[in-house]
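Supplementary Methods, section 5.1.

A reviewer requested that the exact input to the structure prediction be made available. We therefore reproduce it here, unchanged from the version used in the analyses.
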Amino acid sequence: MESAKNLKLVQKTWIDCLLQAFHFVPSIRRLIISFWVISTILLPSVFAQDWTRWDLPEGAKMRLGKGSIYDVKYSPDGNQLAVAGSVGIWIYDVNTRKELSLLTEHNAGIYSIAYSPDGTTLASTSYDDRVCIWDTTNGECITELTAHGERIRSITFSPDSSTLAGASMEDTVILWDVKTREHTTTLRGHKSSVTSIAFSPDGTTLVSGSWDDTLRLWDVATGEHKATLLKHSDGVSNVVFSSDGSTFISSAYNRGGIYMWDVATEQNIKKLNAPFSTEIALSPDGKTLAIGSWGGLLLWDVESNIQKYELIGHLSSITSLAFSPDGSTLVSGSYSDLLLWDVATGAQKASITGHTRGVNTVAFSPDTQTIAAGSREKIRLWDVSSGKQKTVLYEYDVGNRSLAFSPDGKTLASETGWSIRLWNVDEGRHITTLKGFLGNSASGYGIASVAFSPDGRFLASGSSDSTVQLWYAGRTYKGTLIGHNAGLTSIAFSNDSRLLVSGSRDRTIRLWDVVSEGSINIYTGHTEEVMCVAINPDASIIASGSMDDTVILWDVATVEPNHIITAHKNGVQNVTFSPDGKTLASSGGRDDPTVNLWDVKTGELKTTLKGHTNSVTSIAFSSDGRLLISGSWDGTVMLWDYSQIDTDDVTPQLVEDANRDGVVNLQDLIFVATQFGKSGPDLTADVNSDGVVDIADLLLVANALGDGNNAPSLRNIPILDSLNVDDVKHWLIQAQQINNPTPAYQKGISVLQQLLELLTTNKTALLPNYPNPFNPETWIPFQLAIPSEVTLHIYSYDGKLVRTLTLGHRSSGIYQNQDSAAYWDGKNEFGEAVASGIYFYTLSAGEFTATRRMVIRK
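The structure derived from this sequence is encoded token-by-token as follows.
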């Protein structure tokens, strides 16, 4: 189940099947149609609780938490609210505050979003350095704009919706033509990253703010720089225009000031006396300014320059603000809270729940019914079966980097700097705080890891003062394990509770006897800090992960490595064994959103779990081994169905899979061709590992295409029309010049010849459009035997011309996929959406003409 949109499609398909089955029973048909109409109307509320299962990656059962909030925007009609963050764009119904859809085209957190003033599109820019335009009617990404290497961090539409502007980290402002999707202008002049941009209401002027502490005014039509305004004492964070366009207000970071400017004179006319600012929003009438920062949230009277209200409710910094189009409501987002306020009274009207700040750590309860997830200011307890949040344990801004359940599941221990808090899980109540013997707060980051022994006798903590502290029954101090020369990062008990393993920044792992408090063994071999440790169920193997990017599996008895695995980039932060001890799960450091599963016996990679959009910070298996959970800086906890992940029979990755998508197909040919001429180590396109990407590598991929071993049939490859006839001809010429008689090369040449035959069609044809029926868009494929000028005419059922699509001169070949086929958006020559019904399309290519039928169903 991916989203309400997809559920609606599935539901409708099911209804269609029933209608066909009961074609000759009118009464039943009427009942089915009535059910479909009612269920469609009720769809958002019916499926709202299922948002935990929307748009899940392969292998995942559920996503807990909606992720962090980075930007919020009202739709122009005020009926919907778009919330951009770490996992995508959530669309809410403003009146019901229910989830309508989740847009997940981006594979990283989203910096900024903007509705076009006409409400037809939504733009987004992300940490993945992509700018997408979404159709607001169906939630589809209709295009991706090219930024030519610029990293866009803020976007906004011109008042007439024709231009999209993007603020770049490369010190520029980019302008795109929305209709043609072309990059039209680059505004240059700032000396540091551009942080905020705004169009004047008449669309003639654009103002930009930058980390260089300046504001610049630009003429939109000519791209000329009009003025530079100097007043702020720190980087500019936001700029907003008044509704009449005569003034604009700018704010800066770190108490850098809030100023009002006269557009005509280009002079500062007022400084607002607010104590802080990072995020600002101006009410539609220009009378009230919302001001948010790490310090809180205020409503400010612009004319009198005095505070109207302080809005209390957020626990962390304000990340985004937006007024409703009618000005009656303010929505404010912090990393994990989304609150709606009455502007007239300053009272909180409502909240939208479910958003979550970056997760530091996760833990399973022993009965696997509850998951605890710790973020900087909260500990959340989730019900595993329903995905619902059970309770929140508040720990404002104190850490929660490590959590541990007691074996009976009744107590939860959490790290809070230099102390440990114990919580009653059933009641969600703080029991006590352990402070003594926990080290010196002046010596570093505090406690890094806490763990209960499986028999419940001991609670242990490892901290930055290089020691492990032991407690009886979680309350009474037992002793201190001393031996490491640098701060502890991780600790773990053996299943029999007799042994404890610890990892340290001194690059060593130590094994301890818990009862005697003596050191048993020291394991050395990592070249950087050890960040995580785990011990397998029978205490025969220790796993350690390090900042040197490796995981070492140690034989406990011999103190020697069984396997040294290069596991991740940017360090290894977490390791944990499955309950049967056959699999080790690991996660990496900064910017690594994956979880790797390793065969403990062989040290080989079994599979990689992909689904988070930011670093994975914590992983844990359920006690029954059926589930694996991962917590991430994207603010979510992913539940993976480990019992269904076939990790014991994974096909090894082929070197011919050049683009590393898990299959060898024509995309690998294209990928290798795009890398021609590149040289150096670690190039996946260098299939033969000779240090350079050339035609020899392409032939080896072509050879794999012709194999029966995991390679698809050439005639069944849906992306055949991604290839160009001239490219394949050129490849063949290069291949024949190699003069390599080995079977692999000769077979590769044979496959290229087969491709050329498939691409060189001897028949011009008009193919069926897809989808059909459709709403509102469709693609019309065709093939050309000879180069031709191609035109497509679309007619209504009564023969009237609706639209002409001039495709221009096309070479011979197959035009079948969405990048090459003709595209119709369901609109006539005047840009108006056409009615439901039967339409005809006629292809004209030289002397060839052909007509087919299609259906729009709304």
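The helical segments are 4-21, 26-41, 43-46, 666-674, 695-705, 725-738, 743-759. These observations are discussed further in the main text.
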